[in-house]
Amino acid sequence: MDRIFRKTTVFALIALAAGASLGATAVSRAEGNDLSSKLSTFLPSRVARMAITTGTDHRADLSDARVSQIPDGRYVISMNASGELKGLLTLWIQPGPGGTISGGDWALVHAYTEEVEGMGESEGHPEGEAFINKGTLGGSITGGNFSMNADGGIESITGLTLSLTSGSLTYDGVQGTGTGEVLNPADGNSTGTIDLNF
Fold first, then answer.
1. Is the Cβ–Cβ distance between 194 and 60 less than 8 Å?
2. What is the C-alpha separation between 70 and 61, in angstroms, rounded?
3. What is the spatial distance between Cα 181 and Cα 159, in angstroms, rounded to a whole number?
4. Which of 17, 92, 135, 136 could disulfide-link to 171, CB 3.0 to 4.6 Å?
């Protein structure tokens, strides 16, 4: 019986050491039943925290906003995305009281064309360009703020918080979070960013 207890304790301490390598706080050593009691309450939560992994940050710069308002009151903003996630971003924003954003949806199509050396119209790619479709990322808008200009157009969208709940092709099964902002979407000098973590 004592051998079984010692063996169980060794495996438990190995698990705790692995947790400590991820920044966990080490459990103080104890003897006999006191150690067994601490491990029985500590290990389940420790294992749960070890299962949570941190994703990688991905950014796209935004430009050339196109803004419209649909009958249900939401604003639809489409912008070109460049950088790591180049393609097209679309925001469906539900305005709330006091300049807040009460909800909405978003989707980023990571697709673009690129020049392919030695490939022309005879290979079915006009002017030596190939269409690259990496897939789509999307989810819900969970918060943010917006302001209006004197002409009744959107002047800025700041503090966007995004949930990433769906993906296709390269991004099938991806989940994560994100943030974003859009400045001057109502004129020709619109800029913005979207930062995703998955």
1. yes
2. 25
3. 6
4. 135
The backbone torsions φ and ψ at residue 23, rounded to the nearest 5 degrees and listed phi first, read 95, 10
Q: Following DSSP, what letter does each residue of 37-87 receive, concatenated?
A: HHHHHHHHHHHHHHH-----EEEEEEEEEEEEE-TTS-EEEEEEEEETT-E
pLDDT tens digits, one per residue of 100-118: 999 999 999 999 999 887 6
- Per-residue pLDDT reduced to its tens digit, 31-59: 445 544 544 444 444 444 444 447 999 99
Cα–Cα distance between 161 and 196 in angstroms, integer? 10
CA neighbor of 176 nearest in space, from 39, 53, 47: 53
In angstroms, the Cα distances linking 128 to 117, 122, 133, 152 are: 7, 9, 17, 44
Element (H, E) at 131: strand 129-148
Nearest to 9 by CA among 78, 1, 134: 1
Could you give the 3-state DSSP secondary structure of residue 10? helix
